[in-house]
Amino acid sequence: MQRRPTLADVADRAGVSRALVSIVMRDVAGASDSTRERVRRAAEEIGYSPDPRARRLRQHRTKLVGMTFAAAQEFHADLVDGVYVAAEKLGYDVVLSAVTPHRDEPRALRTLLDDRCEGLVLIGSQLPARRLAELAERVPVVVVTRRVRGVDAVRSDDVAGAVTGVEHLLELGHRRIHYLDGGRAPGAAERLRGYRRAVAAAQVSELISPGGLTEREGAAAAAEMLDRGDLPEAVFAFNDRCALGVMDVLIRAGVQVPQQVSVLGFDDSPLAGLAHIALTTLRQDSAGLAAAAMERLVDRLDGTGGAAAGAVDIVRVPTLVVRSSTAPRSA
């Protein structure tokens, strides 16, 4: 494998001392303009670039933020992008560690801690609250999409979002609104609570069954509805992926969406806005959530939110995005 060029290589190429190359690369006083130009040209010619990790070690700071996320969750990808943008503005780099069916969250966390990350952003963490509190005593932690007592959290108001979704369907005249629950996923208990609150206020009956997080689980729930022969007027799915599975099965079975059954999701994933899908959904402010998480973490690391400060719970309210998968109830 080809050796990475060093300061000494640049010095040899430019015909100057290694110390002078270091001055130029650190952009500090002590070198003339012509020398700086010669050194930078030599560095470019041999493909030299400074090692950021070495620089961080000299500073006794890594300036690295570790982030865990579920590789299968589309909304998590939006949050990851937002954290990258926010971290760059704040002078930090991000190290990703994915949670997959073959790589659990504790393993993902160990990788980040081994890389000397100064703080952690945990997207959709499913670790026990006690474990997260213990982790936060060792290293600054911000949990995204979930509220955890004693740990900094940034999340959507899932209760309010679910209430808004149900109220939208009620305004369209729907009374038999079937909710597909998200099980133990972060935010699932709150969305279920919001659904129950809204249907109780409207004095209509609850219709709840397991849904899940994926298209496959949504498809299974829709197939069960078809087997019973008792379709609801509207389906409110835990997330967009689940809603897409519902739509696929209903349409394949000849059920018109939304003429016969309205379908509502949650998240506003990229697929939801495609013209042939046009899913009505609750939009989470991924960019705002990501920026708030990074700002809080940096406050812990650099600013006013030190270790002695109490945990905060930062909440953003989802907004309804109406597309063509919901419509007024047929007469």
Binned strand content: 15-25%
Strand sequence of the main sheet, in spatial order?
2-1-3-4-5-11
| SS summary, helix count | 12
Spans of at least 5 consecutive residues whose pLDDT stays below 50 are: none
Shape: elongated
Tally of distinct domains:
3
Mean pLDDT: 91
What is the CATH topology descriptor of the largest domain? Rossmann fold
Give the beta-strand count.
12
Oligomer: single chain
Within CATH, the superfamily of the largest domain carries the name: Response regulator
**SSE string, helices as H and strands as E:** HHHHEHEHEHEEHEHEHEHEEHEE
Proper CATH architecture of the largest domain: 3-Layer(aba) Sandwich
Structural class: alpha/beta
GO molecular function, one term: transcription cis-regulatory region binding
Organism: Mycolicibacterium iranicum (Mycobacterium iranicum)
Protein name: DNA-binding LacI/PurR family transcriptional regulator
Keywords: DNA-binding, Transcription, Transcription regulation
Characterization of the model:
This protein has 331 residues and is an alpha/beta fold. The protein has three domains: 7-50, lambda repressor-like DNA-binding domains (434 Repressor (Amino-terminal Domain)), CATH 1.10.260; 64-155 and 286-313, Rossmann fold, CATH 3.40.50.2300; 158-284, Rossmann fold, CATH 3.40.50.2300. 44% of the residues lie in helices and 16% in strands. It is built from twelve helices and twelve strands. It has helices at 7-14, 18-26, 33-46, 52-58, 74-89, 105-114, 129-138, 158-171, 188-202, 215-228, 240-252, 286-302, and strands at 64-70, 93-99, 119-123, 141-144, 152-156, 177-181, 207-210, 234-237, 262-264, 281-283, 313-316, 319-321. The strands form three sheets. The chain has a six-stranded parallel sheet, with helices on both faces. Strand 1, helix 5 and strand 2 form a beta-alpha-beta unit. Helix 1 crosses helix 2. The longest helix is centred in the C-terminal third of the chain and has 17 residues, at 286-302. The protein is elongated, with a radius of gyration of 26 Å. The model has no long low-confidence stretch (mean pLDDT 91). Residues 5-59 form the HTH lacI-type domain. This is DNA-binding LacI/PurR family transcriptional regulator. Pfam families: LacI, Peripla_BP_3. One of its GO terms (molecular function) is DNA-binding transcription factor activity. Keywords: DNA-binding, Transcription, Transcription regulation.
